[in-house]
Amino acid sequence: MTLKSESLLYKVFVYALLLAGSAAFILPLVWLLSTSLKGDTGLFEIPPKWIPEPVHWSNFRKAVESFPFLRYTWNTVFITAMSMIGSILSSSLVAYAFARLRWPGRDAWFVILLATMMLPAQVTMIPLFILFKELGWVNTYLPLIVPFFFGSAFYIFLMRQFFMTIPKELSEAAKIDGCSEAYIWWRIFMPLSKPALATLGIFTFTLVWNDFQGPLIYLNDPDKFTLMLGLRSFQQQYGTRWNVMMAASLLVMLPTLVLFFSFQRYFIEGVTLTGVKG
């Protein structure tokens, strides 16, 4: 067997493996979409009927009308948007301090910061709840938003590594022109870090949008519920209506899919490219 034939067989094997893996990941989504378009009967036929006849688009209308979908969507959008703003600003600012500023104990504090990633969230859950309760923040959005304005160890690490790829000559030239560190961070490093910021934004959006535990712990008023809590309430009331349940689930997960596929180019650049453009 020639070297060219071996290379061709290797590529065929790799592509077949990737296609099989992609099918395994896509199949649940296809089943979700197919079930959301079916009627009240024939949901669990064997073999399954992937293309329903007729198509019941009314399931999506029933899902929206079955619980305060628009109110919960607005609540979720507000919490997610504020969390993304806080996460991007705080994490990038702290990362700049670790990447570019010289101050005593910088490296030691960075190691301590990374060590906090080893701490499970369950360990701090009760102390945080007691703290927020004493502050009077329970049944408000503050416990879900404010922590993101104090940075995240993983996000700070991500931004620091990206900032360190930006040539020092840029910041040194800006200092010669009389720019402050805050100006350099905001007007030079932030515009050059769009891929990393997009990656951080996608991570934060996915985390907050799909968060069920946080709203469950801190929110008591049904008018303040998020979509995740709304889905849980919907499941408790209409758990046997799988077609409508799948329609509601698809509507809730749709923004995450749209965001990822819209910004996947920046997401990849955040991992593979440096901060130098042009």
TrEMBL record:
Signal peptide feature range: none
Keyword Acetylation: no
Membrane-spanning residues: 12-33, 77-98, 110-132, 138-158, 242-263
Record's bilayer topology term: Multi-pass membrane protein
Xref: Gene3D superfamilies: MetI-like (1.10.3720.10)
CDD domains per UniProt: TM_PBP2
Protein keywords: Cell membrane, Membrane, Transmembrane, Transmembrane helix, Transport
UniProt subcellular location: Cell membrane
Transmembrane helix listed as a keyword: yes
Source species, domain of life: Bacteria
Boundaries of every ABC transmembrane type-1 domain copy: 73-263
Pfam families to which the protein is assigned, alphabetical: BPD_transp_1
Family as reported in the entry's similarity comment: Belongs to the binding-protein-dependent transport system permease family.
Name of this chain's protein: Carbohydrate ABC transporter permease
UniProt source species: Cohnella hongkongensis
